[in-house]
């Protein structure tokens, strides 16, 4: 509904300023959301045909292809943009993202580094490189890129979060805690920070703190069943079994077919010595995930009740 309203508003505005690049881009964005990706691509292609020198339209076409995961179509668009203007940073960013999405990580890093050289004050390309290193477990290089960002801009969005994530993945939980608390103090509305803090505290065995962090995250927006399962796990491990069940019942209302709900319910009821409910939960778990890695272990539990 909001996209249709934007589409109608932009249509009227374009009648007044038909040559406005910004208005045409806003209209095109609402156009493909209302009429679909293919129609949007045709519309933007026509814009390019009528405005050969307007780089922003080519960039938008590349982004639409990327949004639709048509990376093989997006890559030539970004490459053509770079041929037109070798200093057009946005094209390098789009191209680097495409390479990353198709698994060409070396090309992706190379392209992001080119973007970083063109605009040394913009740390976004370095972040993308750092995240690639983080995802491939090259923590030394990830830290190097994150440090470069802090050297340029200590207030770069979420940089403390990424340092916390890096240390969490390395198993350095004390350092991860320091960084995540720094992130939360700088941005108290950062949902990802509370979620990561919950994971860190769970690893540390501080289960009451773990649950509080997840609960804090849930103040800002609704989550899927997975977060309720994580909260229940923290409450179970802290001994608050009734609260754990309550969290899992909330998860069931969101997605009653999520196997991990019943796996966790089984664990809670087993601790409560309510073996009939534990059996029911474990049987539901196996019916939903018959090939789960712990299926034989859970089957043994059922047989023991």
Secondary-structure map:
Blueprint: H1 2-16, H2 21-35, H3 37-50, H4 55-67, H5 71-84, H6 89-101, H7 105-118, H8 124-135, H9 139-152, H10 159-170, H11 173-186, H12 191-204, H13 207-217, H14 225-238, H15 241-254, H16 259-271, H17 275-288, H18 295-304
Helix pairs in contact: 1-2, 2-3, 3-4, 4-5, 4-6, 5-6, 6-7, 7-8, 8-9, 9-10, 10-11, 10-12, 11-12, 12-13, 13-14, 14-15, 14-16, 15-16, 16-17, 17-18
Describe this structure in words.
Helices cover 79% and strands 0% of the residues. The model has no long low-confidence stretch (mean pLDDT 93). The chain is globular and about 75 Å long. The chain has 305 residues and is mainly α. The longest helix is centred in the N-terminal third of the chain and has 15 residues, at 2-16. It contains 18 helices and no strands.
Strand content: under 5%
Q: Which structural class do you get from the secondary structure elements?
A: mainly alpha
Distance between the termini: 53 Å
Order of helices and strands: HHHHHHHHHHHHHHHHHH
Can you count the beta strands? 0
Tell me about the largest β-sheet.
none
Helix content: over 70%
Low-confidence stretches: none
Number of helices: 18
From the spread of the alpha carbons, the general shape counts as: globular
Q: Average pLDDT across residues?
A: 93
Rg, alpha carbons? 25 Å
